[in-house]
Amino acid sequence: MRLHRAIGPALGVSLVLLAGACGDDTGSSADDPAASETPSASESPAPVEPVDFGDEPALEPRYKKAALRAVDDDLITMVPTVLPEGWETTGGGYTPDPQWWRMEFTAPTGEVVLDQMPGKAADVLAEAGLTAGDDVDLSDWGTGPWSSWDHDGASVLAYDLKGSTVVLQGPDQETVRGLAESLLPAEDAGEQEG
Known about the structure:
Protein name: DUF4245 domain-containing protein
Distance between the termini: 25 Å
Region (Disordered): 26-57
Mean pLDDT: 73
Strand content: 25-35%
CATH topology: Phosphorylase Kinase, domain 1
Radius of gyration: 16 Å
Number of strands: 10
CATH superfamily: MucB/RseB, C-terminal domain
Keywords: Signal
Signal peptide: 1-21
Order of helices and strands: HHHEEEEHEEEEEHEH
CATH class: Alpha Beta
Low-confidence stretches: 1-45, 190-194
């Protein structure tokens, strides 16, 4: 419980920052008639199927409660403090057994997924049949090296964090790296304030 008290306020701050960075998550472009007037297939990138790790958590447009449940269960939940320009959060979810934190985003280049689950990246991703690539050093952003993987044309970055692995998936490495650069554990995100 002490961990929850220490992390809870920081997570709240992080999620408030995230909500501000993501805009209003109560509506969608489907609710905006102007957004549906000019759809263009040429503007939409081809979707990339993310790695299927099984029955992922149900997504909620308002994911703050799910994130707080993850923190309460002692999962050091990774959250973006600021999203890259043009990104939106579509939702997040959490299941306690096995622990699995998930967020989904749309970026200008396509869909991006964050999964955090127990285990080490090498084991989790090798079981899924991914091919390892060169590490990506994000020391300048406070996390250090992330392992790089390829999944049927999708770019995957993974990071081991205190008994869990964080897996980011998207259409290309630049897009996925953009999300990785914005991530901090909720307990550290509060320290960035002030």
